[in-house]
Specification:
Number of domains of chain A: 3
Number of strands of chain A: 16
Strand content of chain A: 5-15%
Oligomer: homodimer
Structural class of chain A: alpha/beta
Number of helices of chain A: 16
Mean pLDDT of chain A: 91
CATH superfamily of the largest domain in chain A: Type I PLP-dependent aspartate aminotransferase-like (Major domain)
Largest interface: A-B, 74 and 74 residues
CATH class of the largest domain in chain A: Alpha Beta
């Protein structure tokens, strides 16, 4: 399936693509970085030169030169009769592979494993013999694990029974299961803007039309806009990270939780509260879970951030009826959650307090160190110190984050530019930098960014700033 | 999302629903079993009584009585203004849960764990510390594991590099990833008929229109029909289990593999060869892998059947370019394969020969024992002894397998009726019985079927036999 990208869509998604470089090079740069970071799909076809030149209001010669440049660099292949097809040069296999090749990978907001992990897996292996005489397929989750997850919600003030919990292969898998259960192609989905890139991927893959509710590091959510969007467009789903939002680090106030829960319940929009980051508290303290404000709110969570990304256990917490529906849809996607992973998770959930304290200490150190480094080397960048989460969401002022991310690659650093977290080229002046790396790596990464910023240059000042700051 | 079932579709899918019971009870029975085994979705709305009576050419009183019966049993809820909605009574959560409640569960063709499994996980736990300093997210699979899978194909005469292998969360997950990558809603997919039920689920969830190529235990594949369907309807995908097909147990001849591979390559249909059952050989011996006949054929495999269902490791083997595309699509569904599962799999793949020999011995015993039991107690049933796989595919003559499965539930036995393996109510006179259970369980299961067959009664002889025998 190779798809045609329309000139209008490309013009919109390119965002502020101009730089200090010649226009054809700036255009080629932007297309290349969008291909590398996944905003444009390998195998899709670029619009005809004439159409793009008209959509961008630039000369056809410039577009032709940009395409020639991309062809020269092997990012574009021209096949007679089927136009110009985007392609990653051999050996470059999308963001995952690309970043693995670079010495420093700042593309993931995730940390090293909790030190108790080997003991958890050892426990799992010891328990295993009790389970081997069964066939092992487990679509719903072990009763002990579902109890442990339920208890963890009850302790946070949200009474929960094991029947309200379904164990999944991580929170992203949970989101995908929920989307396939609750959403039909063509329906609308409300997202935070910016939001987690792979949530956008999940909704777009399910044929959703996205509605963006702005959120900023300093100001939090534009709930009035969210209410308006829900009332006007009746989205089937809304996707939120109310605690230490990824990427902004913002936390939703109790009042805003109430307001959003109320309107969603009234209009029949199912809110999915993604709590994968909820336990990454540095200096905020607990807030009531989103789901405590309405029984129709569905929560997803996981052990990926708190324990380890190599442990793939997440869950859905919601109404019993919904769990039954998800369970029915699941076999079309996968046949269940591995038992050893579940057994290890039973052990780990007993150590939630220890894990949380351990992570909090690490995160505080990383956050403060990175903020100090950035303040020293990029005094013109604006950042709001978050009180939790795993990354800083930085306003880079007149530096284009796509250009910076591209230049950083030459310096050996993989980093995801701002627009990957938004729609239609937004957040070109924003950059997410995770602080979950060692001090050495953070120092080296900031150095690479500094060198890259000299190459990348600034966005021409005649261009308007993005609406969302 | 509650969907309306049209009278025409229901009439078609009901198949041969009449039994020796009064018509309204027979109709209620059939709807109930279709709800229980997943052919009808909980939450969907039945057609209006008048429409169904016209589609089935029976009196409206009969339909009304059937609906009343279902309502009485709490399988149907009538809400003013929104018709009659199917529902599983509280506590019944679809096939997975339902079967867990019964003493004997013959719904899965899967076996107990390979005895070497604890050692494999112990190995994994010992290797784990080398991986804990990384973030652990692994979308592609560990290089060592991909090498081991590649070697396993090369040894079978299909030269393979690690770049051609992507590790997944089991074969069903692999199928789902491939379907989302290679198929667009509305396109056609060629399936074997009968086939694995959850493959049907995956294709229907992706909006596919299915084309059925007949396959039988004794006669194998109707390749001429398959060729015709591919030529006429140009399906995007074809899904095959060429070795010990589930449920028929048939193996495709070398000549048929060649013929099918040739036409698919010519017409641009991507064939997916599901080899999850390929190593369940009892007395056949090796045949060349499907993919050795065309470089465009994609193979999926897993350790689920050979090692254990609680170990969720599968893979895709195909062209390098395709792996890159799948990798791009994967984050919309999940964020990777657990590392401990992968490490255990590296250990297990070294023992492939041992695992295969072990499984083969078990399967031979189970097959011969079950066949003898059935021949003794159901002399009128026709069965072809398969030379591999995990189940018998039995022609039950004039006994309706849906009625039998329903009656068996009262005897404490969960079993999947024939129509779950096909389209439009086909295979009502077929039953799949896995022989992977202990002799005690098999004996008890056959006893339960025998008692159930007295209650279930036979299909009235005036009805025509199914086309596919």
């Amino acid at each position: 399936m190779s798809s045609q990208i329309s000139a209008r869509r490309l013009a919109r998604d390119l965002g502020e693509w101009r730089s200090h470089r010649a226009a054809y090079l700036a255009l080629a740069d932007r297309v290349r970085v969008m291909l590398i970071d996944g905003r444009l799909a390998s195998g899709s076809r670029l619009p005809a030169e004439r159409e793009l030149s008209s959509a961008l209001q630039i000369s056809r010669t410039t577009v032709a030169a940009a395409y020639a440049q991309l062809r020269e660099e092997r990012y574009l292949r021209s096949v007679r009769g089927s136009g110009s097809t985007l392609a990653l040069p051999d050996g470059q296999r999308g963001p995952v592979q690309l970043t693995q090749e670079l010495p420093l990978d700042f593309s993931k907001a995730a940390a090293a494993a909790y030190p108790g992990l080997p003991a958890a897996y050892q426990f799992a292996v010891e328990q295993l013999p009790h389970y081997l005489s069964h066939q092992g397929f487990d679509m719903q989750g072990l009763p002990e694990l579902r109890s442990a997850v339920a208890d963890h919600y009850s302790e946070r003030g949200l009474p929960t029974t094991p029947e309200q919990v379904l164990i999944t292969l991580g929170a992203q898998h949970a989101l995908s299961l929920l989307t396939h259960t609750l959403h039909s192609p063509g329906e609308r989905v409300l997202i935070e803007h910016p939001t987690y890139p792979h949530a956008i991927d999940t909704f777009l893959a399910a044929g959703a039309r996205l509605l963006a509710m702005p959120v900023t590091s300093a100001g939090g959510w534009d709930i009035t806009e969210g209410q308006l969007l829900i009332r006007r467009s009746a989205p089937s789903l809304g996707f939120l990270m109310p605690d230490f939002q990824n990427p902004t680090g913002a936390s939703m106030s109790v009042e805003d939780r109430q307001r959003l829960a109320r309107i969603a319940a009234r209009e029949g929009t199912v809110l999915i509260a993604d709590e994968t980051t909820a336990q990454l508290d540095i200096d905020r303290g607990p807030l009531p879970p989103m789901a405590s404000f309405s029984s129709s709110i569905v929560t997803i969570g996981s052990l990926g951030k708190l324990a380890w990304g190599g442990l793939r256990i997440g869950w859905i917490r919601g109404p019993k009826d919904l769990m039954a529906k998800v369970l029915r849809n699941r076999p079309a996607m996968d046949l269940g959650t591995p038992l050893v992973e579940q057994l290890a998770s039973i052990y780990l959930l007993r150590e939630t307090q220890l894990m949380t304290a351990n992570r909090s200490r690490e995160l505080r150190g990383g956050r403060d160190f990175l903020a100090a480094e950035l303040t020293e080397h990029f005094p013109q960048w604006k950042l709001q110190l978050p009180d939790g989460g795993m990354s800083l969401w930085i306003n880079t002022g007149d530096i284009s984050s796509s250009a910076l991310a591209l230049a950083a690659r030459s310096e050996g650093l993989a980093i995801v530019p701002g627009p990957r977290f938004g729609l239609e080229g937004a957040f070109e002046r924003f950059l997410r930098i995770p602080f979950t790396y060692s001090r050495e790596d953070l120092k080296e990464g900031v150095g690479a960014l500094l060198r890259a910023s000299h190459t990348a240059g600034s966005i021409p000042s005649k261009l308007p700033l993005q609406a969302v700051i």
